[in-house]
Design goal:
The structure is a single chain. This protein is mainly alpha-helical. It has a domain of 58 residues. The protein is built from three helices and no strands.
Amino acid sequence: MPRAPGRVSLHESVKVSSMNAKEVRALQDEEIKIELTRLRAKVYELRSETVTEKIKDTSQFGKLKKDIARLLTERRSRSLAAVKK
């Protein structure tokens, strides 16, 4: 079944390994938005799993939150740079 534009399935694979700043800067604005949606969905998914079952690797929460922070920081710096121009 086709999804509405901008909607991301919870079942799409999300890499849990941390992204570095160089990778984040290489993303386009739309890609940052999509990645934020995916990572937030993954955090929600992990939070739900902790309620229903035992999570083996709890460090995933910190990794995901740091990736989200990197993406938000880059998005904010781009918006500030656009205002200065």
